[in-house]
Amino acid sequence: GALRNRSETLDVKLLEGLDPIDFYRLARAANNEREQETVLDVALGYKKLIDQGHAKSNDELAALVEEGKSKVSKILALLDLPQSVLDVIASHPKQ
Description:
Blueprint: H1 20-34, H2 39-51, H3 58-65, H4 69-77, H5 83-91
Helix pairs in contact: 2-4, 3-4
């Protein structure tokens, strides 16, 4: 099929026993290497960490993800934008 004709390879890592925070950090690093992560992806990841109880405040989250408090707050504020604006951001990730 189509996969046999492709010249690209896919690296797969199987990691067992990884806690959610370490998984988040590894995924974020991998996305940064490929330059595929958008600021909206980051915001959704931050929200997920808060929703799952890994951080109770923006300050805790900033320490957890090793970013400045102001930057974390600004990124999370994106999620307060109207859905129509989020749709535009999602459809034009490189701009």
